[in-house]
């Protein structure tokens, strides 16, 4: 019965308001698209770097990703109950300073710095946390202030990991307090959690939570159902906490790429691999259909033609069953360029995957794993983004379930000569609340023979948080039409203000 209800819900939401129009397949580049990239710390890329060196590293990554068309950064700030930000709850991360609990010197806050840097580039920033993982296998020493040291009874060990026990209510409250603190103190656009709920199964290892099951079962008789319920309660609680602090902060999740295999349930995909529902106790479709998450990014990291987990099979499955909230696809850059296209062995799979994306009505974005692979232009992936697939800027997909009202349009557009050249200035529209305040602006440019049309992203000059842009003046003989629209926090777009300028 449950699976039937889920299937019906998926059909109801298959024509979601945030999905691209039916003509998406024919569009070279949609105007609205989530174009994200994960910047992780757990790989050690920042460990032990000086403040200057890390900022230079991140500046380079952000500059290159901006050129590639990326409009959202998912930045890992909590890998093992630690912090890449100035936290009152948890110790500084060893992935930042080399020693857990050691503050950077000179002291700085990477999350605050990244928030500023992303916003000035017109990018969203989503703070990425691993909710339950308390220690990775490579960590030898924990700081005295670490939760596993202060409260060892709330942590269990599993295959070299420390895991905050999801079955203990105090742990759910603790994580929610951590997230509430981040949301309240930083001007971030989203909170993002990944696929680490209960640990990935390891042969010979058992989750040691029988005692907690007896203590907190709440009448649930099956331990697997109880574990799923623990995660479900947490997801609902976390969603409510985030939106109670700031309604506009998006809550996203990037689950493992397989929900269930068909051998486990009729609703499952034609795959054979680890399952969110059965192995990680993560009922992702329940969260999506209940609106507990604002977007979902399944990690479909395999290639087209993979025997156990075919990329084409999985993107079609998620497109069909996860449309109740905006759906983006987590894509492995290295695997994409490493494997040949089955239909064209002379080429890698980038073009084939982009074609699949465009064919999926309910897929409205991509998140790239991982940022450095794009920045390093592995297999010319970054080059193809900036010259073809993401050549033009894109607005974020709408989220009308949070806010669907557009702000007022910009006012008083005026070209002004400055010592730095000719600029177009405008005045922000009046806004009294978070949901009608202009946060960014979209600037369009049209030649004399072109009819102004804001639906065409090829005419977007920039998306900026400033109230002016530089104009490329030549000899003042050609009259161009500029349109400027305002975007609110949820990317609702205003009507356009117009100005003709001779350049």
Structure description:
This protein has 503 residues and is α/β, with parallel strands linked by helices. It has 2 domains: 33-389, Glycosidases (TIM Barrel), CATH 3.20.20.80; 411-502, Immunoglobulins (Immunoglobulin-like), CATH 2.60.40. It is 29% helix and 21% strand. It is built from 15 helices and 20 strands. The protein has helices at residues 2-12, 51-67, 94-97, 110-120, 147-150, 169-185, 210-216, 223-245, 276-280, 284-289, 311-321, 333-338, 350-359, 371-375, 381-389; strands spanning 34-39, 72-78, 124-129, 133-135, 155-158, 161-164, 190-193, 250-253, 295-296, 327-332, 340-341, 344-348, 363-369, 411-418, 421-427, 440-446, 460-464, 468-470, 479-487, 497-502. The strands form 5 sheets. Strands 9-8-7-3-2-1-13-10 form an 8-stranded parallel β-sheet. Strand 1 (34-39), helix 2 (51-67) and strand 2 form a beta-alpha-beta unit. The radius of gyration is 23 Å and the shape is globular. The N and C termini lie far apart (65 Å). Residues 22-26 have low confidence and may be disordered.
- What is the CATH domain class of the largest domain? Alpha Beta
Main pleated-sheet profile? 8 strands, parallel
Report mean pLDDT, rounded to a whole number: 94
What is the rounded Rg?
23 Å
CATH homology superfamily name of the largest domain? Glycosidases
**Helix content percent band:** 25-40%
- The dominant shape is globular
Give the N-terminus to C-terminus distance in angstroms.
Answer: 65 Å
Task: State the low-pLDDT regions, or none.
Answer: 22-26
Largest sheet strand order: 9-8-7-3-2-1-13-10
Which CATH architecture of the largest domain is right?
Answer: Alpha-Beta Barrel
């Amino acid at each position: 019965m449950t699976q039937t209800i889920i299937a019906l819900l998926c059909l109801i939401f298959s024509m979601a308001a945030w999905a691209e129009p039916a003509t998406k397949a024919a569009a070279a580049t949609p105007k609205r698209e989530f174009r994200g990239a994960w910047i992780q710390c757990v790989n050690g890329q920042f460990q032990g770097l000086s403040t200057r060196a890390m900022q230079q590293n991140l500046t380079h990554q952000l500059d290159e990703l901006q050129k590639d068309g990326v409009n959202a950064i998912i930045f890992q700030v909590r890998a093992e109950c630690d912090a890449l930000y100035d936290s009152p709850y948890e110790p500084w991360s060893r992935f930042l300073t080399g020693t857990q609990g050691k503050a950077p010197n000179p002291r700085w806050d990477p999350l605050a710095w990244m928030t500023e840097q992303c916003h000035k580039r017109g990018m969203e920033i989503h703070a990425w946390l691993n909710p339950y993982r308390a220690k990775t296998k490579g960590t030898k020493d924990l700081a005295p202030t670490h939760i596993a040291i202060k409260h060892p009874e709330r942590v269990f060990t599993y295959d070299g990991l420390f895991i905050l026990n999801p079955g203990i209510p105090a742990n759910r409250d603790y994580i929610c307090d951590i997230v509430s603190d981040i949301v309240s103190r930083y001007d971030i656009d989203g909170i993002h959690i990944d696929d680490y709920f209960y640990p990935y199964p390891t042969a010979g290892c058992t989750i040691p939570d029988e005692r907690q099951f007896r203590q907190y079962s709440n009448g649930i008789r099956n331990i697997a159902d109880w574990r799923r319920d623990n995660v479900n309660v947490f997801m609902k609680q976390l969603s409510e906490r985030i939106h109670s602090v700031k309604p506009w902060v998006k809550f996203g999740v990037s689950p493992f790429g397989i929900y269930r295999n068909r051998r486990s349930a009729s609703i499952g995909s034609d795959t054979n691999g680890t399952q969110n529902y059965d192995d990680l106790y993560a009922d992702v479709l329940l969260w999506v259909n209940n609106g507990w998450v604002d977007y979902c990014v399944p990690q479909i990291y395999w290639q087209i033609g993979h025997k156990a987990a075919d990329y084409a099979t999985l993107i079609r499955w998620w497109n069909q069953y996860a449309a109740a909230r905006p759906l983006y696809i987590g894509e492995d850059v290295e695997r994409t360029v490493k494997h040949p296209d089955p239909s064209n062995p002379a080429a890698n799979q980038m073009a084939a995957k982009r074609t699949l994306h465009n064919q999926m009505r309910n897929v409205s974005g991509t998140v790239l794993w991982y940022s450095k692979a794009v920045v390093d232009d592995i297999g010319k992936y970054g080059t193809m983004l900036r010259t073809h697939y993401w050549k033009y800027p894109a607005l974020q997909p709408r989220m009308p379930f949070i806010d669907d009202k557009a702000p007022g349009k910009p006012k008083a557009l005026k070209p002004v000569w400055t010592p730095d050249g000719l600029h177009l200035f405008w005045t922000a529209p009046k806004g009294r609340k978070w949901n009608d305040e202009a946060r960014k602006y979209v600037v369009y440019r049209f030649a004399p023979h072109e009819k102004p049309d804001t639906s065409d992203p090829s005419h977007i000059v920039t998306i900026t948080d400033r109230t002016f842009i530089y104009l490329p003046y030549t000899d003042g003989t050609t009259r161009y039409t500029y349109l400027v629209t305002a975007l609110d926090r949820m990317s609702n777009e205003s009507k356009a203000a117009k100005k003709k300028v001779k350049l």
